[in-house]
Amino acid sequence: MRDEAFYDEAELKDGPDGGKIAPSGAPVTWVEEPSYFFRLSAYGDALLALYESEPDLVAPSSRRNEIKSFVKGGLRDLSISRTSFSWGVPVPGDEKHVMYVWLDALVNYIAALGYPGMGEGSQFDRFWPANLHLVGKDIVRFHTVYWPAFLMAAGLDQPKRVFAHGWWTIEGQKISKSLGNAIAPSQLVETYGLDQTRYLLMAEVPFGNDGDFSHKSAIRRINADLANGIGNLAQRTLTLIQKNCAAAIPEPGAFTDQDKALLDVAHRLWERIESDLRLQSFHEVLRTIWGVVGASDVYIDTNAPWALKKTDVARMGTVLYVLAETLRTLAIVVQPFMPETMSRLLNQLAVPEDKRNFAFLGEEGTLTPGTVLPPPQGLFPRIVEAE
RNA sequence: GGCAGCGUAGCUCAGUGGUAGAGCAGGGGAAUCAUAAUCCCUUGGUCGGGUGUUCAAAUCACCCCGCUGCUACCA
Questions:
Q1: Hey, which of A156, A282, A295, A324 has its CA 20 to 30 A from A51?
Q2: What are the residues facing A96 on neighbouring strands?
Q3: Which nucleotides of B are covered by protein (CB under 7 A)?
Q4: Which helix (H) or strand (E) holds A44?
């Protein structure tokens, strides 16, 4: 029993010695045992109706299509208990059986919350239904067919959303034992840094698709987006403040239209990323945020505060204030993606710990002129490789 | 085999009827506050191939080529 799996007779092929061979190539054994079944076959129509009424339940939509066609093809009842081993949760009233395969596993989502002993104010009350099950694409069926059917049978609410993420390839190749090309996450963290790795995984691919991780594109993104992008923007802004504003947030004068335009985009970032965030379109969220980084670079260049320090110190202060305030919103909004580095950036902007959540993204959390800032420190080192 | 989807600039992709787009890479210029980072301009595509519908197609229909996913009891 090499595979520890059930195979349908139709899947089997004839082996050389007259026996049967599983798709994996392993010889199979015929095992017979009594088992309780879940009447999955009775839930096909109800499931299809659920997918219709909750179009966002199964995501990405390519997975929803697959699941729908799977269900349309007809469902078979599901064996949910075993008698051939004893580890596991005994079936109430028939202790020879233990619950096995997916029923026991999926029920953990609610058993962990105290189900069925839930009452007023219980964990179950508080956390179920789940807002999101984030699962690998290989087990999406169990979470979008079996699990909803189980919940229907128990008369419980459905989760709000089940999102199936994809796989990574490395340098264009599948990750496999035989190729020996697996990379431990800790190795990536060591090579690129923790937040850099987080960013790469979120930005490199439309979330839900498979993605390819390559050293070349990792360096390209880290240098272009992080070191040259938000890192450099922060460094040049904070250094200018440090040297020319007595290391304190400058007092802004009247805002020009250009000032207002940038501040407005920054203060309203939330509106523009909220729906993508809720749909797990993380790469889109980052793209939108990085649009503001780009706009800030254009702003600092056209206003050239380094030139203003000789001609109009007050105006220089306003420009640097606008930039610092934009950086503040960028840091807050990027926190979920790169918490450690953004925390450092917020420290450098002297933003109080209790004013770093999304509620302070808008004008409510605006920087206070006169606040003294610590000396700036680089956020993302540029990666330079020897040829 | 069946069902679904994809194939657009060197690379990654956006664009679903109305004169081909973004980021990165490449080329030229500007600036010099900043991690030699930044800004501006720019080269580059018969939108997989073919036929058709339409005043008009990357965008719709059909065919072909190539690629991918799903096709049940492994958490």
A1: A282
A2: none
A3: 3-5, 11, 13-14, 23-25, 31-40, 69-75
A4: helix A44-53
* Count of CB atoms situated within 10 Å of the CB of A74: 8
pLDDT for A38-56, tens place per residue? Answer: 999 999 999 999 998 998 8
> Which nucleotide has its C1' atom closest to residue A231's CA?
B35
Cβ neighbours, 10 Å, residue A204: 19
Tell me the sheet residues that pair with A133. Answer: A162
In this predicted model, what pLDDT tens digit does every residue of A305-357 receive, in sequence order? 999 999 999 999 999 999 999 999 999 999 999 999 999 999 999 999 999 99
Tell me what pLDDT residue A6 has.
Answer: 67
Q: Which residue's CA is nearest to the C1' of nucleotide B5?
A: A62
Nucleotide nearest A295, CA–C1', reads B39
Distance A175 CA to B73 C1' (A): 26
Nearest C-alpha neighbor of A224 from the set A191, A198, A188, A200: A200
Q: Tokens 């099950």 correspond to what residue? A: A133
A169 CA → B23 C1’, Å:
22
The residue ranking higher by pLDDT, A88 or A154, is A154
Burial A3-38 (b: 16+ CB within 10 A, else e): eeeeeeeeeeeeeeeeeebbeeeeebeeeeeeebeb
- In whole angstroms, how far apart are CA A299 and each of A247, A251, A259, A295, A303? 21, 18, 8, 6, 6
Nucleotide nearest to A104 (CA to C1'): B75
